[in-house]
């Protein structure tokens, strides 16, 4: 369905030459004379590449009709991440490249929202927070407790982040998936 460029906003899904794109950045310039200029940074949802496109007021773009479905993460192999539709039990593959850093927050069995285009997933939406087990931490010394410092740790998914010095291996920590930062310790290793 074609819509006016003025109706597009950040996170809109557009279909350009049959390829779905997500609007990552959206900027409008209104010169004193002439038509407004719309500059969009688009992310290709198939190949995970970005490109900049300029439109003018009055231009029409095709909106991608997307739906959502609950998908359960099953496993990954060399090049793909495998998900299963929680209602139909149909399995889908998303390429490693299209997953980008989202893979760092996925554990087997996690349920995420899949963005579907014509009954195939083109993207996933992570929850804002996930809980992951700390598998490795840097050593801390007694003087580390005198000042607020962070040390590095590795989580069960392989993600490396900074955590407070009181976090130890085996602890479960809450991570903000939007920023990739530590939020709090959920449970302490027994």
Please give a quick description of this structure.
The chain is an all-beta fold and 190 residues long. The protein has one helix spanning 96-99, and strands at residues 2-4, 13-16, 19-29, 37-44, 50-56, 60-62, 66-76, 80-85, 91-95, 111-117, 120-125, 129-137, 150-155, 160-164, 172-176, 181-187.
Q: Which descriptors would you attach to this protein?
A:
190 residues; mainly beta; SH3 type barrels; OB fold (Dihydrolipoamide Acetyltransferase, E2P); 5-stranded antiparallel beta sheet; 2% helix; globular
Describe this structure in words.
The chain is mainly beta and 190 residues long. The chain has three domains: 2-62, Roll (SH3 type barrels), CATH 2.30.30; 66-125, Beta Barrel (OB fold (Dihydrolipoamide Acetyltransferase, E2P)); 129-187, OB fold (Dihydrolipoamide Acetyltransferase, E2P) (Beta Barrel). The protein has one helix and 16 strands. It has one helix at residues 96-99; strands at residues 2-4, 13-16, 19-29, 37-44, 50-56, 60-62, 66-76, 80-85, 91-95, 111-117, 120-125, 129-137, 150-155, 160-164, 172-176, 181-187. The strands form four sheets. Strands 9-8-7-10-11 form a five-stranded antiparallel beta sheet. The protein has a five-stranded antiparallel beta sheet with strand order 14-13-12-15-16, with no helix packed on it. Strands 2-3-4-5 form a four-stranded antiparallel beta sheet, with no helix packed on it. The protein is globular and about 65 Å long. 18% of the residues are buried. The mean pLDDT is 87.
């Amino acid at each position: 369905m074609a819509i006016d460029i003025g109706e597009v906003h950040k996170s809109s899904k557009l279909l350009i030459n049959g390829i779905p794109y997500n609007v990552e950045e959206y900027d409008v310039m209104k010169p004193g004379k002439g038509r407004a200029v719309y500059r969009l940074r688009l992310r290709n949802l198939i190949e995970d590449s970005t490109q900049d496109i300029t439109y003018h007021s009055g231009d029409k773009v095709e909106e991608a009709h997307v739906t959502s479905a609950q998908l359960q993460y099953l496993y990954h192999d060399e090049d793909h991440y495998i998900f299963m539709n929680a209602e139909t039990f149909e399995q889908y593959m998303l390429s490693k490249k299209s997953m980008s850093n989202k893979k760092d927050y996925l554990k087997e069995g996690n349920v995420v929202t899949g963005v579907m285009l014509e009954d195939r997933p083109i993207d996933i939406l992570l929850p804002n927070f996930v809980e992951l087990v700390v598998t490795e931490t840097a050593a801390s010394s007694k003087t580390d407790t005198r000042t607020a410092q962070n040390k590095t740790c590795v989580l069960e998914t392989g993600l490396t982040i900074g955590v407070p010095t009181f976090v130890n291996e085996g602890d479960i920590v809450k991570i903000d998936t939007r920023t990739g930062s530590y939020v709090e310790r959920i449970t302490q290793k027994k």
